[in-house]
Amino acid sequence: MPNLVVLRRELVRYGRLLGERRLIVAAEGNLSVRIGGHAFLVTPSGVPKDRLRVQDLVEVDTRGRTARGRPTSEWPMHRVIYGLRPDVRAVCHAHPAWATAMAVAGRELDGGLLTETAAQLPRVPLAVRAEPGTEQVAASITGLIADHDAVLLGDHGVLTVGPDLASAFALMETVERLAQVTLLSEFAATGGSVDPDVLARLMGGGA
User: Which residues are catalytic?
Assistant: First the structure.
């Protein structure tokens, strides 16, 4: 049985890191960990993750039952993941800007772009758009999460999983960096430079 005190502190810590690294704003995102059997520890609904306290966290079972508090509205998505992936012990959902932009544009990510991600993250697939906080979000990832540790949610951020919260969080940062490099490399490849006439005027001191 995992140490609940340690897990609670980890959830609070990574909730704060999500805010500090600008992977979320306001009350976006959610985290969860498996605490044994059919029980899980999740972030509460409506509370900014960078302001979490250990007493805010909610224990929930696979039926969504709790003794106290209201779990994140995205709990059905977490529940589906844990049901399909017994190897997963932590789930992280956030809205990092670059990766979310890819999701909004309807594009998945190719991990082969970077040597650092080619083996670990060969592909980050895109789930179909679903209304946040509904069972449709859970349904949208069912065919993807079995074979992928990271998924772009249609118009709705990123989902990552791992054997622990540290791994799931690190993968979230990796997905965001991959998205950033993807978009910047495409901009660079288009020759998106300053117009030569404008550059000549600037160099000549012209207005």
Answer: 74
